[in-house]
Write a structure and sequence with these properties.
The chain is α+β, with helices and mostly antiparallel strands and about 650 residues long. The protein is built from 28 helices and 14 strands. Helix 13 runs parallel beside helix 17 and helix 22 packs parallel to helix 27. It binds zinc ion.
């Protein structure tokens, strides 16, 4: 593990304009710098870098954070990896602590598994190139398929001999652990080689480590399965691996598109034909993990399927998962009797590319068209199709895109748009209800805001308080925004009081009445820090482990005046000075306003209680106490109101 000291050192030295500047062409604009966002496609720059706050924020796609976050998002690295990345940029020596015994042991096992797999890969490759059986059967098969030697070597293709235990005995003679061979599925329980008489495909993870193998039989024996695969192990989760991703990832990022095919040989063939942004889900239907893996590099996915009915069905199965992840899905259907490999071999790269570009279809429309054609004039089957399509549209995350799909599909399905809208809404609501129930039953489900998203369009910037918000979340957010922006600064007139301490002192007693869970969490966390003698600065929020807190902080730091607008709405009379000059007043005002809202709320609750209990018992102890509380609160409320220069009714 990297020591806290090294992490701090990197965080303190990394300058956002330098780190981002390595990847984005930045121009100065006032105190900030702007450029084209590297995370979404844009023509006019909305990607803003603030050197003084050491953060970046894109007003187009919403991505933002500190230099470490930028490297994590841009280079797809974990936190420790990003720290190391920046450390090497700034030539800082990274200190690491020793792993615990358990961690060491686990690492040792995992490392050994990789080492054994590497041995097996080298063994299979050696068979293919240097042993008679491998050369005669394996290599000649690959050559027949048109694979060049450089391609065969790059993808580390190999051959497993017919012999019953050649791999196993050769591994044992080299002192490899038989248990590891069994774990990896290279050796069966009877100490026989698992892969025999097969050409071998090496399966890598994204960082190029060997995690598994697939063996294809060349025999015409129908009882033999065409492909057999390594079993899952500590290093191989087949749901999370895409064949060829290691070789494809740079091209996928560059082309901003990932082509998905079905077979290993399709990947290799396209790659050899200079189409390198291609991966395979290896026969299984696409999993969520695989989609997430692609999403790390691009949000555009083009699926190439064979023209047979089974291929089409498979294509439709994978659809909803991809839509749900917010990816753009396109589909290309090859002419009957062709797979990508054969089609490319016959037509050549240029014609193949041309075909992809001219025959690409939107996935939802494709599904609608194909299913409608299949249903014909049968009204029952047609209604099944409509339901199916409605289900897919409901999975589309982007509201705007969803509206467009509904419009187009209503034409294709010959059904009124309003009906489709209401059907899609029903599905979304049902899903939402299901999610809420799952949440209630304690299952961890990411929070969804799709209901709001559907009923009321999301504001572009979160500066407008939504009209329908009846609670105090907006004021609570203002307090947190001031806290994050200026918490580390010292309050005027009191050398020992930080703004954070001042805010925390003043909100602690109303914290239980907070409407926003997130704001309460932020304030509580800051309270803990202060109690431990640490006043959080910008970096503390930006590097916080809670993603919501991080995101909130970026937004607060890029748009500090979140409450400027509701101020007018609530007829507060005051003029703002230049930002940063008036943080003391900001802090006070934000707190006063929140206290005022809370007081008003508690007062009205108290009044209701007193009204209800007046007749029953107006001399009881509780009644008297509450009456007293009401008086105190009302006085305080009026005081707050006069400080804020507002008139209370
Ligand atoms: Zn962006």
């Amino acid at each position: 593990m990297i020591t806290q000291k090294s992490i701090q050192e990197v965080i303190n030295i990394a300058r956002v304009e330098e780190v981002v500047g390595d990847f984005v062409n930045l121009r100065r604009r006032g105190v900030n710098m702007i450029g084209n966002c590297p995370f979404h496609d844009e023509k006019t720059p909305s990607f803003t870098v603030s050197p003084s706050k050491n953060i970046y924020k894109c007003f187009g796609c919403g991505k933002g954070g500190d230099p470490v976050r930028f490297i994590m998002d841009h280079e797809k690295l974990s936190f420790p990896e990003a720290i190391k990345f920046l450390a090497s940029k700034y030539r800082i020596e990274v200190e690491e602590t020793e792993d615990t015994e358990a961690q060491k042991e686990q690492k040792l096992v995992t490392d050994s598994l990789y080492i054994v797999n590497e041995f097996a890969r080298d063994y299979y490759v050696n068979n293919l190139f240097n042993r008679t059986e491998g050369k005669n059967i394996g290599l000649s098969y690959f050559k027949e398929r048109g694979f060049r030697e450089v391609t065969v070597r790059k993808f580390q293709l190999g051959y497993a001999l017919e012999d019953r235990d050649d791999l196993t005995s050769s591994a044992i003679s080299k002192k490899y652990n038989i248990e590891h061979l069994r774990t990896l599925g290279l050796t069966t329980r009877n100490d026989v080689d698992f892969f025999r008489s097969r050409v071998m495909f090496t399966i890598h993870n994204v960082s190029g480590k060997v995690v598994a193998f697939a063996g294809r039989t060349l025999s015409s024996d129908k009882k033999q399965p065409k492909y057999i695969n390594s079993p899952e192990s500590e290093i191989y989760n087949k749901r999370a691996v895409l064949y060829g991703m290691y070789f494809a990832r740079d091209a996928v990022r560059k082309e901003d598109e990932c082509i998905l095919v079905e077979g290993y040989t399709d990947v290799i063939s396209l790659h050899q034909g200079q189409i390198e942004n291609v991966v395979a889900s290896s026969g299984t239907s696409l999993t969520r993990e695989q989609v997430n893996l692609i999403k790390r590099y691009t949000s555009n996915i083009k699926i190439i399927y064979d023209g047979d009915p089974a291929g089409i069905k498979a294509a439709l199965r994978g659809l909803d998962i991809v839509l749900e992840s917010g990816m753009n899905v396109k589909l290309v259907l090859l002419p009957d009797g062709h797979d990508p490999d054969s089609f490319l071999t016959e037509k050549g790269t240029d014609e193949f590319r041309n075909f992809l570009n001219t025959h690409v279809e939107d996935f939802v429309f494709f599904k609608t068209r194909v299913l409608m054609e299949e249903a014909g004039h049968d009204p029952i089957r047609k209604s099944v199709v409509i339901r199916d399509v409605v289900g897919s549209i409901a999975k589309i995350q982007d509201t705007f895109a969803r509206t467009l799909y509904i419009r187009q599909c209503s034409v294709m399905l010959q059904i009124a748009e309003e009906i489709l809208v209401s059907e899609v809404n029903k599905v979304i609501k049902a899903e939402l209800r299901k999610k809420k129930e799952e949440q209630r039953s304690g299952e961890q489900v990411p929070e969804m805001s799709r209901e709001e998203e559907w009923i009321t369009p999301k504001p572009v910037l979160s500066q407008e308080p939504p009209e329908f918000v009846q609670n105090d979340a907006w004021q609570e957010r203002s307090v947190c925004s001031v806290l994050i922006n200026y918490g580390h600064k010292i309050m005027e007139g009191d050398e020992n009081l930080s703004t954070a301490a001042y805010i925390i002192e003043n909100v602690m007693e109303i914290l239980q009445y907070f409407d926003s869970d997130l704001c309460r969490r932020i304030l509580e966390a800051v309270g803990h820090e202060l109690a431990a003698g640490h006043t959080p600065g910008h970096n503390w929020y930006l590097g916080h482990e809670d993603e919501e807190i991080r995101t909130f902080a970026v937004n607060a730091l890029s748009t500090p005046y979140v409450y400027a607008d509701w101020e007018r709405k609530e007829t507060f009379l005051q003029t703002q000075k230049m930002p940063d000059d008036n943080f003391v007043r900001d802090a006070e005002n934000a707190i006063f306003r929140l206290q005022l809202r809370k007081s008003n709320r508690i007062i009205s609750e108290l009044q209701n209680w007193l009204r209800e209990n007046m007749a029953a018992d107006n001399t009881g102890e509780e009644y008297v106490v509450n009456l007293k509380v009401l008086q105190v609160l009302t006085e305080r409320r009026n005081e707050l109101a006069s400080k804020l220069g507002t008139v209370t009714l």
